[in-house]
Amino acid sequence: MIPPLSDLPREFAFIKRHFLALAGPAALELSDDAAVYTPPAGRDLVVAADAMVENVHFLPSDPPETVGRKLLRCNLSDLAAMGAKPEGWLLTLACPKTIADSWFTAFCNGLKQDQLLFNVHLMGGDTTSTRGPLVLSLTILGSVVPGQAVKRRGAREGDSLWVTGTIGDGALGLRVLQGKLTDSSGHLANRYRLPQPRVGLPLHGLASAAMDISDGLLQDVGHLARENNVGAVIWGPQVPLSKAAQHCGPQWLETCLTGGDDYEILFSVPPQYDAKLSQNPVLPTVLGPVAVHKIGVLTAPEKGIQTLGANGEPLIFKQSGWSHF
Amino acid sequence: MIPPLSDLPREFAFIKRHFLALAGPAALELSDDAAVYTPPAGRDLVVAADAMVENVHFLPSDPPETVGRKLLRCNLSDLAAMGAKPEGWLLTLACPKTIADSWFTAFCNGLKQDQLLFNVHLMGGDTTSTRGPLVLSLTILGSVVPGQAVKRRGAREGDSLWVTGTIGDGALGLRVLQGKLTDSSGHLANRYRLPQPRVGLPLHGLASAAMDISDGLLQDVGHLARENNVGAVIWGPQVPLSKAAQHCGPQWLETCLTGGDDYEILFSVPPQYDAKLSQNPVLPTVLGPVAVHKIGVLTAPEKGIQTLGANGEPLIFKQSGWSHF
What Enzyme Commission number(s) apply to this enzyme (chains A, B) (predicted)? Predict the structure, then answer.
């Protein structure tokens, strides 16, 4: 007699119970050794992988619905930064035995919502046990017209620096969840738990270089500058902050600029496109239009990375990681 | 001043120091948000992901050179089981702070050897910290002529069952490393640490179904049978054992048949191809020819999974996981 699902080895039953509903056609019902996927003809693939660890990237108290969505969205943000369209994703889990089955039900329900939002399906993966914290690793596949991927390299001195959305909400949201800060609006914690990947942002033909902001705006401007052998000036007061972030007060500006967990897009715009974007600083994404803000300009490399205040005075931060510039 | 490598944030310096030498052209020097990869024209992609956890899939005492190679080879084995050609791989690491930098030097040196052997390059990945054990997650991309991927489904009653190489060495090797068994040849521990993925095995046009053997031969025959709604008879004495495995004695047969960690290929062959393969039971792989052995036959589903001894008597194992058949 062929055993019913309930008699399957635990791992297989677990996969079928929770993940089969997420699987797209490439996944072969998650019952094969690998996914088989026909890439879109005439396009390049864009591939990224990110891992998240319990207590490092998410909190045990976070709603399970948002944990998987955050991981998927971080990867979608990597694709968005390259101007790529999502195609599919794979997930590996190293699970401690202490996590209840219902946690994974909610985890997958959250992922199901995001699959609909971003039109993407699970292709495959692996589950294993661990005596340590939950570790999730997600690989995302996207596609792009050959030659149209926007990279970190390509920016030049004189290009302006832009960001999507608002900066610092995720970092402040973590402090709210840690009890270090209050935010009655709930906006900040929500942004920490559910970043808004700017999938579909039309970077090709506009941006000379782009990257997603995950390590903190100042650090990531540093990465972009280093990759292009330029310096940068960031105009502190021009960095867009949400109302909830502004409400926290100026003592939290450093956290906003250096805290990370933004998953917004940092991009450089050559002078010939700058005026047009400045006139109408809104760009479309698959989740709707997003405001973009000019926050600075790329300079000669010997200038390093400078953040300036309202009166042009340099702002020095303890934790920027780039004070040696 | 642009900082030299040594001033980079720790994670970036770590990635450049250890992984840049493994990166292929798609990896964009590991300095972008994602890899950009032109898939081979007119081929389907085959994608698999596997995770390995310290103390679950490898031992802290294992030589670091073999740990990464084992993970890569397990994934290569997934591709081999589908008849796919390796194209590239991504790696995420969740690293405890206690692992020395030199461990990763050796880890990557091992991977470098396997990249040469299997003609494949690193495309990208992610590193993060953890307070738990080391968790490695690898995603592999391969390619196949459309329609030629060999799947777990496709086998029929009457097809013969075959395996590559020898069965049980990995499971016995683990017991050797745990001090439960001795093997002066070193063969068994070596097979545990370095599986031999049968990349290039010409399954298309020969096998009706295939999968890699990782959970134990009997369990995996059960999976293959279940996916095809058939039963199976396995002829115990026909299961190929290495000299080192035979030397352990018959009391270790159960471990060989149910222990896992084989990373050989289990495949079914329709009657019309069986005679020819039986005449010359050797198949080519990229690492040279490999002997294949007929170990049984697929039966009507109501027969379940039976393992028979030398005189046709049923062999009953405690740990087969399939005694309810």
Answer: 2.7.4.16
Quote the CA–CA distance of B283 and B126 in Å, as a whole number: 37
Query: Cβ neighbours of residue A271 under 8 Å, at least 6 residues apart?
Result: A158, A159, A160
Measured between CB atoms, which of A31, A50, A304 is closest to B227?
A: A31
pLDDT tens digits for range B268-316? 999 999 999 999 999 999 999 999 999 999 999 999 999 999 999 999 8
B325 vs A contacts (CB less than 8 Å)? 1, 3
Determine contact: A226 vs chain B, CB below 8 A: yes
Check if CATH label 3.30.70.360 holds for domain A5-144.
no
Q: Which of B28, B44, B47 to mutate to test the interface with A (most CBs of A within 10 A)?
A: B47
Residues of B in contact with A135 (CB under 8 A): 51, 94, 130, 132, 135, 137
CATH tag, A160-308 = 3.90.650.10
Tokens for B209?
């179904």
d(CA B5, CA B49): 31
DSSP element (H, E) containing B290: strand B290-299
> How far is the CA of B303 from the CAs of B229, B266, B306, in angstroms?
11, 20, 8
Give the distance, in angstroms, between the CA of residue A234 and the centroid of all CA atoms in the same chain: 21
Sort B3 into a burial class: Cβ within 10 Å, 0-12 / 13-18 / 19+. middle
Fill in the DSSP letter of residue A267. Answer: E
ipTM over 0.90: yes
Q: In A214-288, at which residue ranges do the beta strands (DSSP E only) sit?
A: 231-235, 264-269, 282-283
Strand B44-53, strand A35-37: pairing: antiparallel
d(CA A296, CA A158): 10
- A contact residues 94-133, partner B, Cβ 8 Å cutoff: 94, 123-133
Helix (H) or strand (E) holding A104: helix A101-118
Report helix, strand or coil for A20: helix
pLDDT tens-digit map of A61-103: 899 999 999 999 999 999 999 999 999 999 999 999 999 999 9
For the record, the structure tokens of A18 come out as: 């929770």
Contact B51 A137 (CB under 8 A): yes
What is the percentage of chain A residues whose pLDDT exceeds 70?
Answer: 95
- The edge-to-edge listing of strands for the beta sheet with B122-129 is A35-37, B44-53, B135-144, B85-95, B122-129
Residues belonging to chain B: 325
